[in-house]
Write the structure tokens for this entry.
Amino acid sequence: MNNETLVKIETTMGNLEIKLYNDTPKYRDNFLKLVKNGTYEGTLFHRVIKDFMIQAGDPSSKNAPKGKLLGSGDVGYTIPAEIIYPEHFHKKGALAAARQGDDVNPEKASSGCQFYIVTGKVYNDSTLLSMEQQKNQLRVSNIFNALAQRHLKEIYKMKKANDTDGLYDLQDSLLAQAQTEAKKQPEFHFTPEQIKAYTTIGGTPHLDGEYTVFGEVVEGMDIVEKIQQVKTDHSDRPIEDVKIIKVSIE
């Protein structure tokens, strides 16, 4: 299968055409299965956040009454992550799979049906540089926290004994270890492709590497723009339903 599959999504606000990437085959094949089954027909864009993304694919949104809280519907399974990064990233128009948070889903498995299309915003070079620095600093913090977990009994004993000096010494030691470990890993930097996209068309760079991106909009971004402008309630659900009428393989 050399050519990327095109899928047409007809909505009450206009039509989109998306292409599905071949290097995320689990997601491509699952999406096509749901299209053939008619799973998406009649579902809503149930979560819309301007300058961030529009989300759809919740089966429980079909014929949902006004004001009903949506977003928890599924098809009874999740899909293992296929995060192809940095080749696929959260540029404007990217198609990605929704998922539960890392606290309950550390493997980053995705919903079997819910997806979102990135709108995001445009960033300047200095903001992207700050994001790079934050990501690299966060890596040190994560290593430090993992090391601290291994010394919990020791930390607890020191706290019980009010051994402040011992706690500070251990903290310094673990921080030095974390910094040494972090230096063994390559520093995070955005690729030239990411920088170009995020400083021109925009996107949501803080989601990169965290969610599976498995396609992109190739026609109809004006419709995506219209959808992200609609009025929403306190749960980010559009006041007036934005419905998927039909999805078909081109």
In short: Residues 125-150 form the longest helix (26 residues). The mean pLDDT is 96.
